[in-house]
Design goal:
- The structure holds two protein chains of two kinds.
- By secondary structure, chain A is mainly alpha-helical.
- Chain A is built from 13 helices and no strands.
- Helices cover about 65% and strands about 0% of the residues of chain A.
- Chain A is globular, with a radius of gyration of 18 Å.
- By secondary structure, chain B is an all-alpha fold.
- Helix content of chain B is about 65%, strand content about 0%.
- Chain B is built from twelve helices and two strands; from the N terminus they run H-H-H-H-H-H-H-H-H-E-E-H-H-H.
- Chain B has helices spanning about 10-15, 30-55, 65-90, 95-105, 120-140, 145-175, 180-200, 210-215, 225-240, 265-275, 280-295, 295-315, and strands at about 250-255, 260.
- A two-stranded antiparallel sheet of chain B has the order 1-2.
- In chain B, a hairpin with a 4-residue loop joins strand 1 and strand 2 (about 260).
- The longest helix of chain B is centred in the middle third of the chain and has 29 residues, at about 145-175.
- Chain B is globular, with a radius of gyration of 22 Å.
- Classes of the chains: A mainly alpha, B mainly alpha.
- Chain B: InterPro entries: Aromatic_CoA_ox/epox (IPR052703), Ferritin-like (IPR012347), Ferritin-like_SF (IPR009078), PaaA (IPR011881), PaaA_PaaC (IPR007814).
- Chain B: Keywords: Oxidoreductase.
Chain lengths: ~270, ~325
């Protein structure tokens, strides 16, 4: 059992050099990353004990745990950036659905195993390539968190890519199911790399990677995997966005109802 | 030489008596093999089904740290299930067969998992009491006569002792917290105490397999001996926490140097064993559903592996 990485607040010298405005922007962005990992980890953890085979139950729990570790490091950093004395748990448990900034993709229901695999593949393809850039980030703390998460995300992308291939190439049924999941979920993939106003501002000052730079690698990887899986990348898909600006699908409310149940029922207690 | 005059069975028993481990390729009596398959698969199934009552609280864990520990613990249980299924497979059965027996109701799993987890304090009680009882049952199995089982148990026990500590720590945090938290802890203890005493199985006089299992050194202590050890270990821990064990007959017996305690409700025990516990249908139903709904995934994985192998042959 390993706690999420703990950093001493003094470890990030950049913190003092940020203007209050940049610090606030970075806070909001780190929160967005933390929300993203938290919600996807939550969804994956719903599989625990219900997977199609014990080995994959373990694999999904493992990915969920990695994401949860990343979540904690990010919320801890966000709390420091905000400097209002909030904790990781305050940030995770005591905000409303419209304050959450995760992209829509990660809050989509688990569906069948193909839906989960495709959702994971679309996210991992972004996450891995994004972290690869983030490790060189000017913000040392984000770079350090990214470095740890990149090792994990490398495995996640391998896992989800292999499963897309297995399901696409496997049987008629698995092919039909994964095709359906792709048709259903692809429309949520665009949001990952369509920058919000906040992301554009942070990209302008060079504090987060340009999504245009990672788009090419993401496309190349997706093409390779889809081809090997005998699957076709959907074209001309209308991309749904909004999650990163707090406009969510109806699913998020129910996730938060469960996630926040204890903290809302028993406010202010230590667990 | 004397051994030449011994039957296979006598030689086998002589090895057991000399504490020499039995390995998969060694000759063993059919009944020994059957008993072990039954016991190891039951143990593996318990790990698998045991994921459900705790998995039930992962999405509702009260803090990110607790969530992470709980998820990791349930993941460990899946891992234990894997080693144990592998250990059982060395005796000539398959995981598919064992799962089919679980799903048909032929094979059992620990009845404790047929009780519902209703509050966060149940995560404390499951770790502290249920894993505590499991450890007492399992530590002796690290010296059980069948090698693969004993080796799997060494690994399992290491992780179980961590699980037990985290359960105790949940209870301790609740007991040191707000009055509602302490009440939650006491309420959970009230529900889990008796069912955990039942985990050691029927009374010795009602346990027909015990003598043979002890003789084969599959089992090293009787059910009643382990139950007594458990009570002796847990009553002081409950006192330390400031909680009351829900048994008015618990009393230190100076002469026996052990606690006296009340009689388990054996009617309830047998009812749950026979399928009439609160969650028997839900637990088994969840496992059957996962297995059935996962069939197409397993088929796809097999089909892909076969196609891939065929493509490699062509390429070569």
């Amino acid at each position: 059992m390993e706690d999420a990485m703990q950093f001493a607040p003094s470890e990030n010298p950049a913190l003092a050099t940020y203007s209050p405005e940049v610090r606030q922007q970075l806070f909001r962005f780190v929160l967005q990353l933390a929300d993203t990992s938290l919600i996807l980890g939550h969804r994956l953890s719903e599989w625990c004990g219900h997977g199609p085979i014990l080995e994959q139950d373990l694999a999904m729990a493992n990915i969920a745990l990695d994401l949860l570790g990343e979540t904690r490091s990010l919320y801890q950093y966000a709390a420091e950036l905000e400097g209002q004395g909030r904790t990781e748990d305050d940030l995770a448990y005591l905000r409303s659905a419209t304050e959450y900034r995760n992209p829509l993709l990660v809050e989509q229901p688990n569906g069948d195993f193909a839906d989960t695999v495709v959702r994971q593949f679309l996210f991992d393809n972004f996450h891995y390539h994004f972290l690869k850039q983030l490790v060189n980030n000017a913000d040392e703390r984000l770079a350090a968190i990214a470095e740890k998460s990149l090792k994990e995300a490398t495995y996640h992308l391998k896992w989800s890519s292999e499963w897309v291939i297995r399901l696409g190439d496997g049987t008629e049924e698995s092919h039909r199911r994964v095709e359906k999941s792709i048709a259903e979920l692809w429309r949520f993939s665009g949001e990952l790399t369509i920058p919000t106003a906040l992301e554009k501002e942070l990209q302008t000052i060079g504090l987060i990677p340009e999504y245009a730079d990672i788009q090419a690698s993401m496309t190349a990887h997706a093409e390779r995997v889809m081809e090997e899986a005998s699957l076709v990348i959907p074209q001309q898909v209308f991309m749904l966005t909004g999650g990163k600006d707090g406009r969510h699908t109806e699913h998020l409310g129910y996730i938060l109802t469960e996630l926040q149940y204890m903290q809302r029922t028993y406010p202010g207690m230590t667990w | 030489m004397e051994t030449l005059e011994m039957t296979q069975e006598e030689q086998f028993q002589a090895r057991i008596d000399a504490d020499v481990r039995i390995e998969p390729k060694d000759w063993m009596p059919d009944a020994y093999r059957k008993t072990l398959i039954r016991q190891i698969s039951q143990h593996a199934h318990s790990e698998l089904v045991g994921m459900l009552p705790e998995g039930n609280w992962i999405t509702r864990a009260p803090s990110l740290k607790r969530k992470s520990i709980l998820l990791s613990k349930v993941q460990d249980e899946a891992g234990h299930g894997l080693y144990l299924y592998s250990a059982a497979e060395t005796l000539g059965t398959t995981r598919d067969q064992m799962l089919a027996d679980l799903h048909s109701g032929k094979a059992k799993y620990s009845s404790i998992f047929n009780y519902p987890t209703l509050s966060w304090a149940d995560m404390g009680c499951v770790g502290w009491l249920v894993d505590g009882a499991a450890i007492l049952n399992q530590v002796p199995l690290c010296r059980t006569s069948y090698g693969p089982y004993a080796r799997a148990m060494v690994r399992v026990c290491k992780e179980e002792s961590f699980h037990q500590r985290q359960g105790f720590e949940i209870m301790q945090t609740l007991c040191e917290g707000a009055p509602e938290q302490k009440a939650m802890a006491q309420e959970a203890l009230n529900r889990w105490w008796w069912p955990t005493l039942m985990m050691f199985g029927p009374k010795d006089e009602d346990s027909p397999n015990t003598a043979q299992s002890m003789n084969w050194r599959i089992k090293r202590f009787t059910n009643d001996e382990l139950r007594q050890k458990f009570v002796d270990m847990m009553v002081p821990q409950a006192e330390f926490l400031g909680l009351t064990v829900p048994d008015t007959q618990v009393k230190w017996n100076e002469a026996r140097q052990a606690y006296d305690f009340g009689e388990v409700n054996w009617d309830e025990f047998w009812a749950v064993v026979k399928g009439n516990g609160m969650c028997n249908r839900d637990r088994l139903g969840a496992r059957v559903k996962a297995h059935e709904e996962g069939a197409w995934v397993r088929e796809a994985a097999m089909a892909h592996a076969a196609k891939r192998a065929a493509r490699q042959v062509v390429a070569a």
